[in-house]
Automatic annotation (TrEMBL):
Protein's organism: Paenibacillus vini
Protein name: ABC transporter substrate-binding protein
InterPro entries (UniProt xref): Bact_solute-bd_prot1 (IPR050490), SBP (IPR006059)
UniProt signal peptide: 1-19
Keyword Signal: yes
Record flagged with keyword Iron: no
Keywords (A to Z) from UniProt: Signal
Pfam assignment, any one: SBP_bac_1
SUPFAM superfamilies: Periplasmic binding protein-like II
Source species, domain of life: Bacteria
Region Disordered, annotated ranges: 25-58
Biased composition (Low complexity): 35-50
């Protein structure tokens, strides 16, 4: 989900060197002659080279201006890190002028940005947006640049494939996640509950949630998110596990299909957790941060989110120990089923209105710190800093690089040197099944389903099929039909 992907991004393993994926920020130029609006001057084509004796085919000898994706004003650490990257990049490419831009991608704004030629040279977006952006012509085809990049075969294919459409490359993966369930082992042991196997099911989750719940002490067995779009996002994992989908896309017509038998099964399971097991918090209207906080404070036995965020909060903010936290895949609906969790991530895409020189330099900037010794050093420096603070370093389960790449081996060798690096159960990775979010109207769907989840938690005896039919009709008429009309 977008909101969580962004938060995850800012805490990622390579946040210190890949901070360009964190958000947009200020409009100050790094040079003194920035114009008042912070917009990039149109001086980045190859015209200047023709007036000199410099080689016309050497991009490093031509003036190029990049309007880059920059961290938000309150992200002071990320801004400092990005400024360091800018300095290093300009030391190698002194012909490049950098303009910082604070725009955050919004599906409601991107069209206007493109039409008015105000979009950055490259911008951050999410896995959900590939099809929309490609169909609207709001991203550049970077296949040629990609094919000429020496590290293209070392990129994580699961993540990168989300922005490969009809064999063409339109974006570069920054990071990703597969939604997981994180379990507080101590709360299970306190109730003498059996620790379930990683290859678990909905029945296992139900039994753990029911057994671990202690309402009198304010402890829930599971804390599903119950407000904001995150409520719909959490529930969608169960829709996928039950074999359902959000939508279909046939010849450009997007149709809501989540009011299916699988949807009913998933919503009924939520109601069982609420009304039969009495396993969710009494105050169930939890947003993303509320649910994570509940886990780190020991007030719930389970929470559903990207594993990195939960473990980071539990160990480094909640004072929990690594042996008290277990990362599970999402449970299968039944034994032998798929452990589907929503696959999300952050991508940097290049403005199709940018000149050829701007696009190439944007690609070089985006990938500037990928697979470098500087990035390795940053990882080790961060681990050492965490150790000095008495804290843990939490790797993300899903990296931008392929797990069988040489770079992955180098990273692992660094992890193996330190006892404050959190270690996931190696059996976890064979069970994680990432399923991409829908490509159209995802946030609108999540918002609509959040209302359904809230109704299900607040009113006993609601009819799941009727609820989903009403929701599907609303999403169809107000969002999906309009996609085709555009």
């Amino acid at each position: 989900m977008r909101k969580f992907s962004a938060l995850l991004m800012c805490l990622m393993l390579f946040g210190s060197l890949l901070a360009a994926c964190g958000g947009g920020g200020g409009n100050k130029n790094t040079e003194s002659q920035t114009n008042n609006g912070g917009a990039a001057p149109s001086n980045s084509n190859g015209g200047n080279a023709a007036q000199t004796e410099e080689p016309a085919d050497d991009i490093t000898q031509r003036k190029v201006t990049l309007k880059i994706h920059y961290p938000l004003p309150d992200e002071t650490t990320l801004r400092a890190q990005e400024d360091d990257k800018i300095a290093r990049f300009q030391a190698k490419y002194p012909n490049v002028t950098i303009v910082k831009d604070d725009w955050q991608y919004s599906v409601n704004e991107i069209g206007v940005k493109m039409a008015s030629n105000e979009a950055p040279t490259f911008y951050n977006t999410w896995a959900t947006e590939a099809q929309l952006l490609v169909e609207r012509g709001w991203v550049a085809d970077i296949t040629e640049l990609w094919n000429g990049w020496e590290y293209k075969d070392d990129i994580n294919p699961v993540l990168q494939n989300q922005f490969i459409v009809d064999g063409k490359v339109y974006g570069i993966t920054q990071n990703g996640y597969v939604t997981s369930t994180v379990v507080n082992k101590k709360l299970l042991e306190a109730k003498n509950l059996e620790i379930p196997a990683l290859d678990w099911t909905w029945d296992d989750m139900y039994n753990v949630a029911k057994g671990a719940a202690d309402p009198k002490k304010g402890i829930s067995g599971i804390a599903p998110m119950g407000k904001g779009n995150e409520a719909g996002w959490n529930w969608t994992n169960f829709l996928f596990e039950a074999g359902g989908d959000i939508e279909t896309n046939t010849d450009g017509k997007v149709t809501a299909v989540f009011n299916s038998e699988a949807g009913v099964k998933a919503l009924d399971f939520y109601k069982k957790l609420r009304w039969e097991a009495n396993a969710i918090p009494q105050d169930w209207a939890l947003g993303w941060g509320d649910a994570i906080s509940s886990f780190q404070q020991g007030r719930t036995a389970m929470v559903i989110a990207g594993a990195f965020d939960v473990v980071q909060a539990a160990l480094n903010e909640g004072g929990m120990k690594p042996e008290d936290v277990i990362v599970y895949p999402m449970p299968a609906a039944e034994k032998g089923g798929k452990h589907y969790g929503i696959l999300g991530g952050n991508y940097l895409v290049i403005n199709p209105n940018a000149t050829k020189d701007e696009q190439e330099m944007a690609f070089r900037y985006i990938t500037f710190d990928y697979f470098t010794d500087d990035a390795l050093k940053s990882v080790e420096d961060t681990i050492q800093a965490r150790k000095a603070e008495g804290k843990y370093y939490i790797p993300t389960p899903l990296e931008y690089f392929s797990e069988d790449s040489e770079y992955a081996t180098k990273i692992q060798s660094i992890y193996d040197k330190y006892d404050n690096v959190f270690k996931y159960d190696p059996n976890l990775f064979g069970l994680l099944e990432g399923k991409p979010e829908a490509q159209f109207g995802t946030q609108d769907f999540y918002a609509t389903m959040s209302n359904v989840v809230q109704e299900s938690f607040s009113k006993k005896g609601t009819d799941s099929k009727k609820q989903l039919d009403v929701a599907a009709q609303y999403v169809q008429e107000n969002f999906f039909d309009k996609i085709q009309a555009q």
